[in-house]
Each structure stands twice: as C-alpha cells, then as structure tokens.
Amino acid sequence: MLVAPKTDSIILSDQEVRKLAYLARLDLTQQELDEVRPQLGQILEFIKTLSELNTEGIEPMTTALDVDNRWRQDCCDSSLSCDEALSNAPSADDECFLVPAVLGPAAAKQS
Q1: Which residues of 39-78 are buried (b: 16+ CB within 10 A; e: fewer)?
Q2: DSSP letters along 51-106, please?
Q3: What CATH code is carried by the domain that includes residue 46?
Q4: CB 11 within 8 A of CB 49
Q5: Bridge partner residues of 92 (DSSP)
Q6: In terms of residue numbers, what domain contains 23?
Q7: Alpha carbon of 64 to those of 49, 52, 56, 57, 61: distances in Å?
C-alpha cells in the first residue's frame, strides 16, 4: 500500500466539505462533518503526492493486469419471440412489459 508522506495537511472548510457531501447526496451532521474533514484532507494529500510523480514515458493503461479483452464476435443470432420474452413477465400486454410509472404525473399520484 502506498502511503503519502506527512506534510502540511490540506484543511478543508465546512463549506467545502458540505459541498462535497451535497454532490455525493449525503446529509452529514456537524459531528460527521468534523470526522470526515481530516479523512478528505488525507485523500487530497495522497492525490497531490501522486500528481507529483514523474510519469513521462509511462504508457497509459486501463487495467493493472496484462489481459486482452475477450469480446465475442458481433453477429446476428436468433433471439426470443415476443411471446417468449413476455411469457414470464409479471405484467404485460400483447407486445410490451408493463411496469409502474416512475416519472411524470402518474408517478406523482402514486406517492
């Protein structure tokens, strides 16, 4: 495990931590805010340390493992008929799955 060297810690304000919490859709109490602030500072310090590494000549990579993608051929194949696809649906009409509304006026009436 990489550990960032101890330097002057990055200190975040209440406003900055609350903004991050808002973006993450978290509702933090003041106590939770006080607990998470130093943790976020440590994460930012570690990222700062990583950004100082010399990566010149290092090839970009998408995974740490040396593997090839194993994609199947993209070809047409048989599929389920409409009746077969709908046969196990809890609710369907002649051609579609029926699901409860989650957006719009119908969903608002259900809540």
Answers
A1: ebeeeebeeeeeeeeeeeeeeeeeeeeeeeeeeeeeeeee
A2: HTS--TTPPP-S-SS-----PPP--------HHHHHTT-SSB-SSSB-----SHHH
A3: 1.10.20
A4: no
A5: 97
A6: 14-51
A7: 20, 20, 18, 17, 7
Model pTM score: 0.47
For the stretch 69-92, pLDDT in tens is 777 788 888 999 999 999 999 999
101 within some domain: no
How many Cβ atoms sit within 10 Å of the Cβ of residue 17? 20
Q: Does 35 fall in a domain?
A: yes
Instruction: Tell whether 20 is covered by a domain.
Output: yes
Judge contact between 6 and 41, C-beta under 8 A: no
Domain assignment of residue 29, yes or no: yes
How many domains is the chain partitioned into structurally?
A: 1
pLDDT in tens, 13-62: 999 999 999 999 999 999 999 999 999 999 999 999 988 999 899 888 87
Across-strand partners of 97?
A: 92
